[in-house]
UniProtKB/TrEMBL annotation:
Membrane-spanning residues: 87-110
Membrane topology recorded in Swiss-Prot or TrEMBL: Multi-pass membrane protein
InterPro entries attached to this UniProt entry: GspF/PilC, T2SS_GspF_dom, T2SS_GspF_sf
Main location: membrane
Residues covered by the Type II secretion system protein GspF domain: 3-105
Cell membrane listed as a keyword: yes
Protein name: Type II secretion system protein GspF domain-containing protein
Family: Belongs to the GSP F family.
Organism: Holdemanella porci
Entry superkingdom: Bacteria
GO-annotated cellular components: plasma membrane
Disulfide bond is among the record's keywords: no
Length: 114
């Protein structure tokens, strides 16, 4: 657990892992400590507890890791899909503003000359 703590940079996650470590030192199982500290929700917690009893904790943790990674990629992709049109619209407005700010003085100069 100390190696894990050294590799974590996020302060809230680090605090959670410290609390999980303290619970484990008090004799609680890893799965119960993770659920009780809110690292995993109840659904995943039940899966972890079943894996803990059956001895397949490593496989379940790998599966949960893959599931969270897939969820993160899906949410990030969805966010980017929503962000792209907004950025394009914003940049179009910016380019339009720049064009108008250049063309209006030119039109005034042409009207004065003509």
């Amino acid at each position: 657990m100390d190696v894990i703590l050294q590799s974590i940079d996020h302060p809230r996650l680090k605090e959670k892992v410290v609390q999980v470590k303290e619970r484990m030192l008090e004799g609680e199982s890893l799965s119960k400590a993770l659920v009780n500290e809110g690292v995993y929700d109840q659904g995943y917690g039940a899966l972890l507890m079943a894996a803990d009893e059956s001895g397949h904790q490593d496989e379940v943790l790998k599966t949960l890791s893959k599931h969270y990674k897939d969820d993160l990629e899906r949410m990030l992709s969805s966010f980017l899909n929503r962000l792209e049109p907004t950025m394009i619209a914003g940049l179009s407005l910016l380019v339009g503003f720049v064009l108008i700010s250049i063309m209006l003085p030119l039109m005034n100069v042409l009207q004065t000359l003509g």
